[in-house]
Every structure is written in structure tokens, then in C-alpha cells.
Specification:
heterodimer; B: Rossmann fold; 11-stranded mixed β-sheet; 6-stranded antiparallel β-sheet
């Protein structure tokens, strides 16, 4: 009892400290009023504008031109520590058009069955994570390509930043990008959790006393009004070198801000795509377009399903021998 | 449609993406190993994993759904339909998950649904949710009836429920349960109509004066079945009664007991004083004289009466009284004799002894439906006598057949009553209960059947309830009655849970001959109850009628001066023999003025009522 209590109190202190540290670190910028930051953004980052929802005529046009495809991937791991685990990946490209069958693809990875065992570096967690990211990214790009081949949609909403695909699926991504450009299919990525620091870096440049390595996420919290969008100037955007244009927007009542990337050659569509994302996002939500949420829900491999798959299709002997960690045997 | 989830030998779950399932629907499961299995949907649910729209905890507003719909995606199409299906016959092994499911064709379920030809059965209604199977139904089962739904009369779309009347030989008695307004009386009416069509001799005890079949239902158009010469309404004490000479001491005691409970002493009095073949008058007289003698108190006093008698006749009468007094005073206490006298008087006042039951017997012989009307108390008394009489006639005939002797023919018959708990109550004795119990227990052998309707099955005698092999269960709200139904029928948990929510006219028919419970809807009745007029409409139309009549009376007398009222009253009395007082006439005139039929004006001679032009 006493032991538990002492841990609690210790933890409590640590959390309090973290809170204090964050408060201290950001005091400079948080004490500025909202207009200060908005002015700064207007001046250095890009125009703040207010979006209008797309009306139904517009949406009907998209429907007529092939609908919108949402792409997402999911992964789940079963087993214990390296190399005794198996990872499954699933990608889904789902069109808003009911008669177009959703494109599912799956992949599987286990260090037990690859060259990785020979390569001591593979044991490294970083390498493992990268491997996982690559497989996930690949499968998403593959389903997107397949859905283009089958359905020729008007536009594709990828779940997450487009940079990710550059990093993890270089060649495949280049192919998708090329196909989209050739066929005129608009390709955008919707970023639920923005991880850039465009504004923070600029702040540092302009006001050296505000140099605190702040990220856009916390800086933009509550700064935009519902329905407002920032078109990031290409010259400040970190993504420009990858030939993407980006925006930040507040797409729901929640004060968090989401991002959206579009390939540069399709920059002309950035406004309508932003408005599409805005239109598809429920007012009282976390800011994610409902379509991507639906796709996410459908592609997700839950623990139960994972377990069911393993138990059904794997010999019990193999399953127990390789993939049931001690942790799972605890009661 | 496919079988999903964990299955057993009795129950499976069925999932469909495209077709909604309905309770009581029949499905065929195509088990690859066991062949086709037939089952009935006992629970139906729908599920949409995106609605309620709390995807990842977010509340989704309609505008987004609408936008998605414009983009071609309809979230409603994500709905899946799930049903729990119970196999009619247990399978040998649990059903294989993933088995395909299809709707049965009519010929596959015909034997399960229809047990009798329409000519030999009672066409009571339709089996609910069978319209898909009814599509390729044999022509002879089509267009047999109409149902009455919220939007009026509807042609038959489903498989008819035809009750096999011949099966009453094995399963003789029927219970009809349901709360007020559940369609119980209406269901009874339909059953009676069918009995009349089949010319089955039937006695209906009708305490509500509602089982009249002469009026055609207002919603029916064109020709329909005419019941005019198939039934007869008879009122106790007016058309039918008890023939006193035919009564046995036991009958009489029952009757008296029904008037008001008899004490042991009173029972004794009847046993001592009543002689078979006594007429009402002779028995009543005997009692009365004994009572008068007992009021004198002693033999001496009666002797004095004889001595002081003014006429011979009076002397003779008192001598008779003395005789009675001497023979019976010791065994028949005065108070008991008096008790019997006033009970007898009460029954006589109700007219019970003024008629007989010949007309009923004749009606039954000719296969008619005889409706016996009277208030509950009278009916209890009379039915005791009547049923005893008829049942024993039938019994004598059958017994004679067995014994190979001869007796007059008496047909098998059905006894029908609403508010059966009044005739055979649980917990206490009632004269009619013993005969109903007797019929319930051995009527099958003799061809006497019961149809007992009640809104309180809990109050019905248990021995009798246990004998009801077929039960019609309408909407029931009362928990204690649902409990009784649960105990007395094979209704499943799911079905009893639905009882409080059944639509009027929907009914579970739990029938031993069918071997399972059927969810049916009673057909539209051909005749209509005399009680269908809304009492509030009645008030309105009655008021209008009165006004019209009053206007007709004073039409020619207008204008009316208030000084003329007295004169007017005598005129009206002369012409129409209706009497008004000055006050009532003036009130009436004022009222008509308010209603805008008349106008009232001031003149130098006082008020004057004029016709409004």
C-alpha cells in the first residue's frame, strides 16, 4: 500500500514538473495575444482566409467524375520481442461511389522469415520501425494505384502527410504521383497530427528571443477560427523541396488544426480540395474528414481479428512455439 | 444471407447486407452437410456500425452525411440485418456457420402453415410476415379474406391461418386471452362467424349484448356472407328461461345459489320441501304458507286463525298451513325458509322461470349459433342450468350409443363465452364453474367444446386453463397475466416480451395441433358489433336530434311571446303529448337562441322568440 502510494506521489511530482517546464518554455509565446500570432502568420507564413463549404452541385460533379477515394492503412503485431513476432498490414482504397468495390491489399512480415536474422543491424528497433513504416506506406500506395487503375476517381485523399510516402516508398510513390499527374487525378494528403515547425522556425528567425523550437501544432492551437485556412507560402514551406504545397486549416469546432498537402503541379486545386476536406468534416469532431474516419474504421485490424486469424490459420504448435510471449500467458 | 457466429442445433444467427428480416418469418438454411433446414426468425435486429454516428467518439452531423451522399456514398447502406433463427426441428449437428440462407417457396412450408382445407376449417386470419412465401401460393388459398389495417381494409397478401376444426376432437378447448382493446372480442366474433359458416351448433353466453351478427361491417363493400338465418339472439327471461318443472333439486339449489349464496340450512330446506315436478307456483306457495305459519309462531296461534277465519276458504288455507307447520317447522328454520323465498322471488322477477330452453335446443339441432344474452349474474344462473341440461342430453345420447340403447339425438356443440373468469373463477365456487369444469375435463369424449375468452387469465380456474389446448393470445399488459400466459403456453421468452406491444388484432396462436406458436393477424370481421359507435359521437348526434325535434314542435308556433308560454305548453301537450313546465320550456328556448336557431327580441309586451331568418 505504502509502496504504491510512494510511486504515485513521485509520478505526480514528475508530471507537475513537466507541466511547469512546458509552461516556462512557452511563456513567451503564450503570453502574446492571439492577434499577434495571426498578424505574424499573415506577414510571414501565408494568407488566412475563410473557407466556404462546397455546395451539393459541386459534390455531385465529383460524383459524376468518378468520386473521391480515401486511402488508409493499418497494421497489427502479434507476438513478443524480436524476432518472435509477426506483423500484418492492410491497405484500403474506398471510393464514395457505392458500386465501386473497395480495394483491399494485405502484406505480412516476420523477422523469422527474412534475411534480417543474418543482418545484426535489423535487431535495432529503429530499423524495425522503419521497416514497418515502409511496408505500411507501400501498401497504401499500392491500393491507391490499384484504385486508379480500376476506377479512375476524381481525387484521392491519403491519410497522412505526403512526405511520408517520399521517405518510405520512393519509387512506388513516384509512380503514383506520375499516374495522377498524367490522368489528372488530384492527390492530397490529410494530416490529422501536424508535425511541422514552419511557424516556430520563422518565429525564431524574426524574434530570436522566442527561439524555443515550438511546433506548429501547439502554436496554432486556438489561433484559427472554425473554417479558416492558411495557404503556406512556398518559400517558407519545408515541403516545397519535395514539390508539395500545403495548408493548415481548422475544420471543426475543436481548436486543433489539421494540415493538407497537394502535389505541386496540382496547386490550382488546393482551394477546392481544402473546401472538400472542410465539407466532409463534421462540425463537432476532432477535425478529421468523415470519409477518412470511415476508411480507417474499415481497414483497422483489431486485436481480436488478429488473434482470430492466427488461431484459425496457424497450427497451434507453430503459433505457441513462436508467437505467444510470456506476457500473454500471465493471468 | 448467411449463417453467422456461433451456432447450435436449435438456433443460429443469420446476417444479411441487403434484406431486412422479420420476426416469425420462415427461412431455409442450406447446410452443406445436413441439407435444407427450416427455421423461424425469432428475433430481428439491424445494426449500422457508423450509426449512432460516434465514429472515434465524434458526433457526426447531418450535413456531412448529406455531402457524402451527394458524393455517392449512402451511409444507410452500411446497415446489416441480423436475425436469430430457431430451427423448427432440432438438427443433428450444429448448423454450419457460413451456410447460405434462402426464402422458402410455398410448397416447402405448406404443411407447416396449412393444416386444413378452407372448406373444412375456420379461416381466422393470416399468418404474419409470410407474404414472400404467399407469392406462389396455390390459388385456393388466395383471396379468402381481408385484413383491417391502419389504412383501412386490405386484401390478403399472406398465407391464411385456417384452424382445423376437426382437430378439436383431439384438442377440444380454446382459450382467448387479451387485455381490453386488444382485439379479443373482435377475434371471438371472427371465430363465431366461421363457426356459423360451418353450421356448427354453438352456444354463446353474451354478457355484453355484442354478439349480434345482423349488421354488416361498414368497411365492407358489395356482397358478403349473410348470417341472418344462422344465428339467433335470445335474452334470458324474455325469450328463454328455465322450465321449473324440469328442475332437479340440485338445479334449483344452483339457481338459488346464483341469486345469492345458500347456507347449509337453506340447502336443506330445498331438499326437504322441493318435490320433482313441482311447478313454480306450487313450490313458491308451499314455502310462502310455511313462512306465514312460522310467523304465527305456535300451533295454538294457527289454531286460533283457523277458528277466527271469516270464510271457508280462509279456514281451509290455514288448515293447510298448519299441516305444513307441523311437518316442517322442526326441520326448516324460519329464517332459512324466508331466505329461499326471497331468492326465488328474485329469480322470478328476472323472468327466469317464465320461459324454457326449447328454442335453444332446436337452434342447436339445426346447427345454428345461439346467443344467450343477459347480465352477468343472470347468465351465470341460467348458463348453469342450460349447460347442465344440454351437456347431459348430449351425454345421454352418446352413452346410449355405447350401451347400444336408444336416446334422442343431440348434436355436439361448442360453448363460447367472453369474460369467462366470471363463469369459472379461480379460488371460489360459482355454480357455472362445476359444469364448465366438467365439460373441460370430459367434454372431448362427448363432443362438447369450450371457447373461453377472458382478459384476466389469472382469474380463470386453473384446472380449466390447463385444459385449453389452443390459445389465442392478444396484447396483454398486466404482468401477472403475462406470467400466467408464460406458465400456461409454449410462448418463448422473446414472444412473451412482445405481448405488451402487439397491435390490436395481432395474435399469437399457441396450438397443440400445430405444435408451435403462430403469429397471426385476425381477418376483418364481416359483421360488426352494435357497440362500435363512439359514445362521444353519440352524445353529439343525440343533441342534434333533440334540437331538430324541438324545432319541429315549435315551428308553427313562432313567434312566441313570453306571455304566451302557458298557452303554448298546453297546445304542445295536446298535439305531441310532451309536457314542459314554464321553466323548462323557457330554458329550452333560450338554449335554442344561443345555438342560433332562434332570435330573441324585446317588445313592449316583453320578450319574443322569433325564427332566425
Amino acid at each position: 500500500m505504502i509502496l504504491i502510494y510512494s510511486i504515485h506521489s513521485d509520478l505526480k511530482e514528475k508530471i507537475k514538473d513537466l507541466n511547469q517546464m512546458l509552461q516556462d518554455k512557452y511563456r513567451g509565446i503564450f503570453s502574446k495575444d492571439r492577434e499577434f500570432l495571426r498578424d505574424f502568420i499573415r506577414q510571414y507564413i501565408g494568407q488566412i482566409e475563410t473557407m466556404k463549404r462546397l455546395d451539393n452541385r459541386h459534390l455531385a460533379l465529383y460524383e459524376a467524375k468518378g468520386g473521391i477515394v480515401g486511402v488508409d492503412g493499418s497494421t497489427n503485431t502479434k507476438g513478443g520481442a524480436f524476432p518472435h513476432f509477426v506483423q500484418v498490414f492492410q491497405g484500403l482504397a474506398k471510393s464514395t461511389l457505392k458500386d465501386q468495390e473497395p480495394v483491399f491489399m494485405a502484406d505480412i512480415y516476420s523477422p523469422l522469415f527474412s534475411d534480417s536474422l543474418k543482418n545484426p543491424l535489423e535487431k535495432d528497433e529503429k530499423v524495425q520501425t522503419e521497416k514497418k513504416n515502409r511496408l505500411l506506406s507501400d501498401i497504401e500506395v499500392k491500393v491507391a494505384l490499384e484504385s486508379i487503375k480500376r476506377h479512375k476517381p476524381y481525387g484521392i485523399l491519403m491519410d497522412g502527410s505526403l512526405i511520408r510516402y517520399n521517405i518510405y516508398s520512393g519509387d512506388l510513390w513516384a509512380e503514383l504521383r506520375q499516374v495522377c499527374e498524367e490522368e489528372g487525378i488530384i492527390l492530397v494528403g490529410v494530416i490529422k497530427d501536424i508535425k511541422t515547425s514552419t511557424i516556430g522556425d520563422m518565429l525564431e528567425e524574426v524574434y530570436p528571443d522566442l527561439s524555443i523550437n515550438a511546433y506548429d501544432r501547439e502554436l496554432l492551437f486556438g489561433i484559427l477560427d472554425y473554417g479558416e485556412i492558411i495557404y503556406i507560402k512556398d518559400e517558407v514551406s519545408k515541403k516545397y523541396e519535395y514539390e508539395y504545397s500545403s495548408v493548415f486549416m481548422r475544420s471543426s469546432i475543436a481548436p486543433t488544426v489539421i494540415g493538407m498537402d497537394i502535389i505541386d503541379s496540382q496547386k490550382g486545386h488546393i482551394e477546392e480540395m481544402s473546401r472538400l476536406v472542410y465539407t466532409l468534416t463534421p462540425e463537432n469532431s476532432r477535425g478529421v474528414p468523415l470519409w477518412l474516419d470511415l476508411v480507417d474504421k474499415e481497414v483497422k485490424i483489431s486485436d481480436t481479428i488478429m488473434e482470430g486469424l492466427m488461431e484459425k490459420y496457424m497450427d497451434r504448435d507453430i503459433y505457441e512455439r513462436f508467437f505467444i510471449p510470456e506476457r500473454a500467458r500471465r493471468n | 444471407m448467411k449463417v453467422v457466429g456461433i451456432t447450435t442445433q436449435q438456433e443460429v444467427f443469420v446476417g444479411s447486407r441487403t434484406r431486412n428480416l422479420r420476426i416469425n418469418e420462415f427461412l431455409i438454411i442450406e447446410d452443406p452437410n445436413q441439407g435444407d433446414l427450416i427455421g423461424e426468425v425469432v428475433e430481428a435486429k439491424t445494426f449500422n456500425r457508423y450509426i449512432p454516428l460516434n465514429i472515434a467518439g465524434d458526433f457526426v452531423d447531418n450535413s456531412v452525411i448529406e455531402s457524402l451522399r451527394t458524393l455517392g456514398y449512402n451511409i444507410d447502406e452500411e446497415t446489416i440485418f441480423i436475425g436469430k433463427v430457431r430451427l423448427l426441428n432440432e438438427a443433428l449437428y450444429p448448423v454450419l456457420t457460413g451456410s447460405d440462407i434462402r426464402l422458402p417457396a410455398f410448397y416447402e412450408v405448406k404443411d407447416l402453415m396449412i393444416k386444413s382445407k378452407k372448406e373444412d376449417g375456420l379461416v381466422i386470419g393470416v399468418i404474419r410476415n409470410t407474404d414472400d412465401m404467399a407469392a406462389d401460393m396455390d390459388q385456393e388459398y388466395k383471396n379468402l379474406l381481408n385484413t383491417y389495417e391502419e389504412n383501412g381494409l386490405q386484401p390478403q397478401r399472406e398465407i391464411p391461418y385456417i384452424m382445423d376444426v376437426r382437430s378439436m376432437h383431439q384438442y377440444p378447448h380454446i382459450g382467448v386471452f387479451g387485455g381490453s382493446g386488444s382485439g379479443k372480442s373482435f377475434g371471438l366474433r371472427v371465430v363465431l362467424e366461421e363457426l356459423m359458416k360451418q353450421s356448427i351448433p354453438t352456444i354463446v353466453l353474451d354478457p355484453h349484448f355484442e354478439m349480434d351478427f345482423s349488421e354488416k361491417a361498414s368497411y365492407l363493400q358489395g356482397d358478403s356472407f349473410d348470417f341472418e338465418d344462422r344465428f339467433k339472439c335470445l335474452q334470458v327471461g324474455f325469450h328463454v328461461g328455465v322450465k321449473f318443472q324440469d328442475l332437479s333439486a340440485q338445479d334449483l339449489k344452483n339457481l338459488l345459489d346464483a341469486a345469492s349464496t345458500l347456507t347449509d340450512a337453506m340447502n336443506n330446506v330445498v331438499d326437504i320441501l322441493f318435490r320433482r315436478r313441482d311447478s313454480f307456483y306450487s313450490f313458491y306457495n308451499k314455502l310462502n304458507m310455511l313462512m306465514e305459519a312460522q310467523e304465527e309462531g305456535t300451533v295454538e296461534k294457527i289454531d286460533n286463525r283457523i277458528k277466527d277465519a271469516a270464510t271457508d276458504e280462509e279456514r281451509k288455507a290455514w288448515a293447510e298451513r298448519k299441516e305444513l307447520y307441523l311437518s316442517y317447522d322442526k326441520t326448516c328454520p324460519h329464517s332459512s325458509v324466508r331466505g329461499i323465498v326471497w331468492r326465488l322471488k328474485r329469480l322470478d322477477n328476472d323472468g327466469i322461470f317464465s320461459k324454457d330452453i326449447r328454442e335453444i335446443e332446436e337452434g342447436l339441432q339445426r346447427g345454428k349459433l345461439m346467443v344467450i344474452q343477459g347480465n352477468t349474474r343472470i347468465l351465470q344462473v341460467f348458463s348453469t342450468y342450460l349447460l347442465n341440461n344440454l351437456y347431459h342430453k348430449r351425454r345421454e345420447y352418446k352413452d346410449a350409443q355405447y350401451k347400444k340403447t336408444t336416446a334422442d339425438y343431440f348434436p355436439p356443440f361448442i360453448v363460447v363465452t367472453d369474460e369467462a373468469h366470471n363463469f369459472a373463477p379461480k379460488g371460489y365456487d360459482s355454480p357455472s364453474k362445476s359444469i364448465i369444469k366438467e365439460i373441460s375435463q370430459e367434454g372431448r369424449k362427448y363432443g362438447a367444446f369450450l371457447i373461453l375468452a377472458t382478459q384476466r387469465p389469472t382469474l380463470l380456474d386453473e384446472t380449466i386453463t390447463a385444459q385449453l389446448n389452443t390459445k389465442f393470445i392478444f396484447r396483454t399488459v398486466r404482468a401477472s397475466d403475462i406470467q400466467t400466459i408464460k406458465e400456461e403456453t409454449d410462448l418463448t421468452m422473446e414472444e412473451t416480451r412482445r405481448l405488451p406491444y402487439l397491435r390490436t388484432g395481432d395474435v399469437f396462436i399457441s396450438s397443440a395441433s400445430m405444435g408451435r406458436t403462430i403469429f397471426a393477424r385476425i381477418r376483418a370481421a364481416i359483421s360488426s358489433s352494435p357497440h362500435t359507435e363512439n359514445p362521444f359521437d353519440e352524445l353529439k348526434s343525440k343533441g342534434k336530434e333533440d334540437d331538430k325535434m324541438f324545432m319541429e314542435i315549435i315551428e308553427n308556433k313562432l313567434p312566441i311571446n313570453d306571455t304566451d308560454l302557458l298557452h303554448l305548453i298546453s297546445e304542445i301537450e295536446k298535439e305531441f303529448s310532451i309536457t314542459f313546465t314554464i321553466d323548462t320550456l323557457e330554458d329550452r328556448l333560450k338554449e335554442m337562441t344561443q345555438k342560433g336557431f332562434l332570435s330573441k327580441e324585446d317588445t313592449i309586451f316583453g320578450y319574443r322568440y322569433k325564427k332566425l331568418s
